[in-house]
Write a structure and sequence with these properties.
Number of strands of chain A: 10
Number of helices of chain B: 12
Mean pLDDT of chain A: 93
Largest sheet of chain A: 6 strands, mixed
Shape of chain B: globular
Oligomer: heterodimer
Mean pLDDT of chain B: 92
Largest interface: A-B, 27 and 20 residues
Strand content of chain A: 25-35%
Distance between the termini of chain A: 33 Å
Low-confidence stretches of chain A: none
CATH topology of chain B: MetI-like fold
Number of domains of chain B: 1
Strand order of the largest sheet of chain A: 6-7-8-3-9-10
Order of helices and strands of chain A: EEEHEEHEHHHHEHEHEEHH
Shape of chain A: globular
Radius of gyration of chain A: 18 Å
Strand content of chain B: under 5%
Distance between the termini of chain B: 45 Å
Number of strands of chain B: 2
Helix content of chain A: 25-40%
Largest sheet of chain B: 2 strands, antiparallel
CATH class of chain B: Mainly Alpha
Low-confidence stretches of chain B: none
Radius of gyration of chain B: 23 Å
Chain lengths: 251, 294
């Protein structure tokens, strides 16, 4: 199987401190890969490398390669905005813009040049349907997104991300601020979206990784310790560190 | 004697309560004083002449005229001109300082702007007379640059530090997560600033503009010195003007107490107070509409 994302020997420094110490990892299309590990292991940092969010931090220095469909997205000649259009992101805390529900989803389309009102409406509706949010908000699209519940806000953020039709969807602990019912809805949504995207999720919740992820990568202090099918990581780990972590001895 | 926790709580609440009421009392006291004295002018002047008369000439040899319109028009003209310059420049500078400026530039610019706020208005007026007015005269081919435009330029300079400082704080207060969400969708920095950050900071930016407007409306010394000081109805930005504040400052010292002229200046003050109050209430209303909950 051709990997959608192929990370090769990725190093990342913040100033002098090495946060990622040579990560190599492949992530297939139409599958969910979970990044797990204790706090400070670098899993969020790795995730944010994939859509080059570290560009905003002048102290961050990356070396190595991240291949998206065989092209290195860390290359100097790569246009960062077009990479981010292909690699969408959902953040830990729901962060809808202080705009209407409609404008939130339409934002990404508009900045990418879509201004036709009819097409905008259609694409916003499509994204909201795919995010299981349409039924709840279709008659109040002009309402401020900030009046939605936390779970609805997070699904809105997912709708906003998938409206621009990315190829990869990065999710940084998308349920950590949500109640169990909202979490369940997001997980159902992820399993549906898997059919269309290469999904990478960072999670603190090992049960969540087991519920949704096809593959799991365990990281520790900037190193990738083990990467395998999720069932193998949790039931038959090859490394002692992994076994200790997934069985709750530390972390 | 030691106070119990409960007693010191009560005491603190009382102190702050009285401090709050004191400012309300002072505010209403000023307004009442202006209205009380201003009202006495209307034993001699009709309300219609005062509010709709187009000639302000209380010291005329013949019939004194008390039309406030030229003064109001002058104030609005100079203030509008100042805002047209200061608002785009101020918000632009604030956005640059908050979003773009590298630390070294920031550390040079920020204190300079704060220092600008501390320059006395008489010094600004002085620069207006000796530098800005001749420049305006030269650029536009006028015989004299002491006019409304000159006043606007100087007031813009004086309103800028307020607008920049408050607007910068508002822009900085926008959660980083909004910017990240925008970047993650493929937006670049200018698009993010224009379509996400500035709209999210709108209530604070409006507050900044209104504070700057208040500063320009109430400024006296600069316009008195450098805006030409002719109490005729202004014909445009190249006309010399006398604002409401300048009229009060110049004329009050030269009038005998208890005369119609004396009382009419209080009435002018009351109108100015009313305009400021209106601006404040309006800005509060507008700002509330743009405020968002996090």
């Amino acid at each position: 199987m051709q990997a959608k994302l192929k990370i090769q020997n990725l190093h990342l420094h913040f100033g002098k401190k090495e946060i990622l110490k040579g990560i190599s990892l492949e992530m297939p299309d139409n599958a969910i890969t979970a990044l797990i590990g204790p706090s400070g292991c670098g899993k969020s940092t790795l995730l944010r490398s994939i859509n080059r969010m570290h560009d905003l931090n002048p102290n961050a220095h990356l070396s190595g390669q991240i291949m998206l469909d065989g092209k290195n997205i860390l290359g100097k000649t790569q246009d960062v905005t077009s990479i981010r259009r292909r690699v969408g992101m959902v953040f830990q805390k729901p962060n809808p813009f202080p705009k209407s529900i409609f404008e939130n989803v339409a934002y990404g389309l508009k900045i990418n040049g879509e201004h036709h009102p009819q097409r905008l409406r259609e694409q916003v509706e499509k994204a909201l349907r795919e995010s299981f949010l349409w039924e709840e908000v279709h008659d109040q699209l002009d309402k401020s997104a900030l009046e939605l519940s936390g779970g609805q806000q997070q699904r809105l953020c997912i709708a906003r991300a998938i409206a621009v039709e990315p190829e990869v969807l990065l999710m940084d602990e998308p349920c950590s601020a949500l109640d169990p019912i909202s979490t369940d809805k997001i997980e159902q949504l992820m399993l549906r979206l898997r059919e269309r995207f290469c999904i990478v999720i960072v999670t603190h919740n090992m049960q969540q990784a087991q519920r949704v992820a096809d593959f799991t990568a365990f990281m520790y202090l900037g190193d990738l310790i083990e990467h395998n099918r999720t069932s193998d990581i949790f039931n038959n780990p090859q490394q002692e560190l992994t076994r200790n972590y997934v069985s709750g001895i530390f972390g | 004697m030691r106070l119990t926790a409960h007693q010191s709580d009560r005491l603190a609440a009382l102190v702050f309560q009285w401090a709050g009421w004191l400012s309300v009392v002072v505010l209403f006291g000023i307004f009442a004083m202006l209205v009380w004295n201003g009202a006495k002018a209307f034993t001699d002047i009709s309300l219609a002449e005062f509010f709709f008369g187009t000639v302000w000439n209380p010291a005329a040899f013949g019939e004194a005229r008390y039309g406030i319109l030229p003064l109001v028009a002058s104030t609005l003209l100079v203030t509008t001109g100042a805002m047209l310059m200061a608002v785009p420049l101020g918000i632009g500078t604030a956005a640059y300082l908050a979003e773009v400026a590298p630390p070294r530039v920031y550390n040079a610019l920020k204190p300079a702007i704060e220092l600008l706020a501390g320059v006395p208005s008489v010094a600004i007026g002085f620069i207006g007379i000796t530098v800005v007015a001749p420049a305006i005269a030269k650029i536009f081919g006028l015989s004299n640059g002491l006019n409304a435009l000159n006043g606007s330029v100087l007031l813009a300079v004086m309103a800028l530090p307020t607008i920049i400082t408050v607007a910068e704080d508002a822009i900085r207060a926008v959660p980083q997560s909004f910017r990240e969400a925008s970047f993650a969708l493929g937006a670049n920095r200018p698009v993010t600033l224009w379509r996400v950050t500035l709209p999210a900071a709108m209530s604070g930016i409006l507050a900044a503009v209104m504070l700057g407007l208040g500063r320009a409306l109430g400024e006296t010394m600069t316009v008195l010195m450098a805006a030409g000081n002719a109490s005729a109805f202004p014909s445009g930005f190249f006309a010399p003007v006398r604002t409401m504040t300048a009229a009060i400052a110049i004329e009050l010292g030269e009038t005998a107490q208890g005369t119609t002229h004396y009382f009419s200046l209080f009435a002018v003050g009351a109108v100015l107070f009313g305009i400021s109050l209106l601006v404040n209430i309006l800005s509060e209303k507008i700002a509330r509409r743009f405020r968002y909950k996090i």
